[in-house]
């Protein structure tokens, strides 16, 4: 895995329960379909979001549960996952702005650039819901914002991150790819 890759392949394991009525000549396909449905789009280990199941590496032998008659299978698979990493620089889209800071989105991650992580020359303008500077630069909803991730934590079925735009080459990016 590359040191600062946001997307990477990760070996994973999951135990699945299969109902007796699902056992039959197409058991392997049933297990594969159920695995895809249950894990894709969910949070995995280490604060990663499972984008897709790349391949199923091994389906263990099923064990019948005495109480239910269901079969339990341990599946080893490789998942394509998304996880921003601390100190990584990413381009995001501004979803909203409040007096507390700038809310951005990248994939399933919601990112907050707190007001203390915005350069001092920018101030919050309540009527327009923007951060603007004394020299006319403005950050508003819909802008592309280059941020540096400072922290990550799980949040429901997604993840939440904090970020800064105080370092060099961070902040709003114009449509021509230049910083404003």
From TrEMBL:
The keyword Transcription applies. The keyword Translocase does not apply. GO terms for cellular component: P-body; RNA polymerase II, core complex. Residues 16-69 form the RNA polymerase Rpb7-like N-terminal domain. It is found in: Nucleus. Pfam families: S1 (PF00575), SHS2_Rpb7-N (PF03876). Residues 84-152 form the S1 motif domain. InterPro entries: NA-bd_OB-fold, RNA_pol_Rpb7-like_N_sf, Rpb7-like, Rpb7-like_N, S1_domain. Keywords: DNA-directed RNA polymerase, Transcription. GO terms for molecular function: single-stranded DNA binding; single-stranded RNA binding; translation initiation factor binding. GO terms for biological process: positive regulation of nuclear-transcribed mRNA poly(A) tail shortening; positive regulation of translational initiation; transcription initiation at RNA polymerase II promoter. Gene3D superfamilies: Nucleic acid-binding proteins, RNA polymerase Rpb7-like, N-terminal domain. Belongs to the eukaryotic RPB7/RPC8 RNA polymerase subunit family. This is DNA-directed RNA polymerase II subunit RPB7. It comes from Vannella robusta.
